[in-house]
């Protein structure tokens, strides 16, 4: 039995690859997730009304890189892709996911439960869920970190009803939000959504950073990958990844959209450092800004141990961990005995694209070959 923990885009991508390569069947594969497949992704992107992805047409869940392009043609999507990078339309991308889940009968593998702890007896792992215990020979951790929100220090004493984190997929973007904190692509989409009904203030620490992609695609190929592989020191690897990932950036068309909103007095952009926040105002280095409610677009936590499940694994199995707190894994993406990783857990091996859709595709290829 092979068990994937996490039914998001990366978990689904890996599952499809395992079945496609006949490494697993729907009878020998389990996917543990308390929500429907890709629920967090679809909820958040729908909440901020994203229209097109940032990634390209070959980045999706199906093993065939050209499958989404073929799907768009077959289903006659007139505006299935946008721009030079052929960014997929979100609605089409999500419908494609649903259709692959149905085609590969992944629902037969789905266990609606939340993994709480991992233990081992002999060669068998026991995954403790909220509703049961699941035995398996091999584990693939595709949990991601999007469910563990980064709440800045300046927000620690602010009552929860005064702000929301955009990654909290259970909370809508209500009309009382008039301040957005953050400077990347999620902030841009959030601002565009909110300004459809009322003016908004965007507070960011830096100028708008423009990058069409959030990391150079060459990091998963022969162009850049050797730079990471040749760095044997994991502090150096972390530095390479940090510098290569365009955190807090957005494509040019979103920058232009924000500037258009600013010109039409629907958006005020404040570039400043936030010193403190109370129940009614935000104090930056140079301004005091009153607010009704704040939307944080500050990403997810960088500390794996902020996730109780990952913390339990680290404390119980004492696996190899780099100084940054992330797994040191084999080129096969095996962390320790028959436990494999994907997403952020694999980034010290796969590099800055590991968290992205294309990172899930690369992880699926490596894991399928490793387990076969």
Distance between the termini: 13 Å
CATH architecture of the largest domain: 3-Layer(bba) Sandwich
Query: What shape does the CA trace take?
Result: globular
Number of helices: 11
Name the CATH homologous superfamily of the largest domain.
FAD/NAD(P)-binding domain
Strand ordering within the main sheet: 5-2-1-9-21-20
Mean pLDDT: 94
Strand content: 15-25%
Number of strands: 21
Stretches with pLDDT under 50, minimum 5 residues = none
CATH topology title of the largest domain: FAD/NAD(P)-binding domain
Based on CA atoms alone, the radius of gyration comes out at 21 Å
CATH domain class of the largest domain: Alpha Beta
Total number of domains: 2
Structural class: alpha/beta
Q: Give helix % range.
A: 25-40%
Largest β-sheet summary: 6 strands, mixed
Topology diagram in text:
Layout: E1 2-5, H1 9-20, E2 29-32, H2 39-47, H3 67-74, E3 81-82, E4 87-88, H4 90-103, E5 110-111, E6 115-121, E7 124-129, E8 133-136, E9 138-141, E10 163-165, E11 179-181, H5 185-194, E12 200-204, E13 209-210, H6 225-229, H7 234-244, E14 249-250, H8 252-263, E15 267-271, E16 274-277, E17 281-284, E18 288-290, E19 294-296, H9 308-317, E20 334-336, E21 339-341, H10 347-350, H11 357-371
